[in-house]
Amino acid sequence: MGKFLAVSSAYLLICSGYQIFRVPFDPLIQYLIPFYIFLTAVFLLLYDLRLYPKPLRKLDKLSQTAVEFLVAVFLMENIILDFWIPLQDGTASVTYTLAEKLDEINYYEFYPLRIITEILETSIFNTCVIYILSIFFLLSCLHAIRAVDFRALDEGPSCFFSDIVYRSKRFMKKKFKTLGLQRKKRVKILETEDMVKKRKKSEKDVCNCNLIDNDIKLDNLSVQDYGLDDLDDLSFKFSDFDIPSETELLSGPL
Questions:
Q1: Contacts of 127 (CB under 8 A, 6+ apart)
Q2: pTM, full prediction
Q3: Tell me: the pLDDT tens digits for 192-249?
Q4: Which pLDDT value is given to residue 188?
Q5: Which terminus of the chain has a lower count of CB atoms within 10 Å, N or C?
């Protein structure tokens, strides 16, 4: 969760137009929506990568989040200034240069060539190329981080979209598990006849073991455990009782 907080904070900072390490590049951005699409691709890529070096000793969560935030801001600013802005400027210059080269040719004798030249000279064509490039980078990052798998298109569109749904559910379950919000599932085990017999036998063995343990405990009880001081207290003397003799029994009333 700390890594997501760091990278998303860096993403929002760049989207807001603030920079920390490099000069402001807002005037250099010609197309805003393709820029945000490309920046989203960079955000997904940085979120999937390890920003904090593994060999280094781990810090506490707050310090590590701060380090990852600074690393993410540094990488985003340099990727935009050193890659995206030269790419958009180079694309515009290539299209205009190509249009000029075709203009030097006597295209009036070849009508389709004249149409191509007029299309290349329009700003709409350059805008479409920039959009295509930004979407291409976004889809490439999604495929690289295994968010989507374009190889599933070989099986058909339904298989491709089913794979996207499956990967999205798996991603959400993983995040809920990380946050401790996952609900525990109750698993019902279907028992066969052999499993039922073994379970009953094991329960019976446990009961027998408990009875044997109780008998052993009773045998080990001492006289004091019964509240008696001596075994003589358990002996009975016949002299203590008035037992009639045989003559008295015979002469007694029937």
A1: 31
A2: 0.65
A3: 666 767 777 776 665 555 555 554 454 554 444 444 444 444 444 444 445 555 555 5
A4: 57
A5: C
User: Using a CB cutoff of 8 Å and minimum separation of 24, what contacts does 135-139 make?
Assistant: 135/37, 137/37, 137/38, 137/41, 138/37, 138/38, 138/40, 138/41, 138/44
Please give, one letter per residue, the 3-state secondary structure of 124-181: HHHHHHHHHHHHHHHHHHHHHCCCCCHHHHHHCHHHHHHHHHHHHHHHHHHHHHHHCC
Residue 102 near residue 113, CB atoms below 8 Å: yes
Q: Among candidates 13, 14, 72, which has minimal Cα distance to 44?
A: 72
Range scoring the smallest mean pLDDT among 28-37, 94-103, 200-209: 200-209
d(CA 13, CA 7): 10
Of the candidates 223, 221, 225, the one whose C-alpha atom is nearest the C-alpha of residue 234 is: 223
Per the listing, tokens 């000029």 go with 100
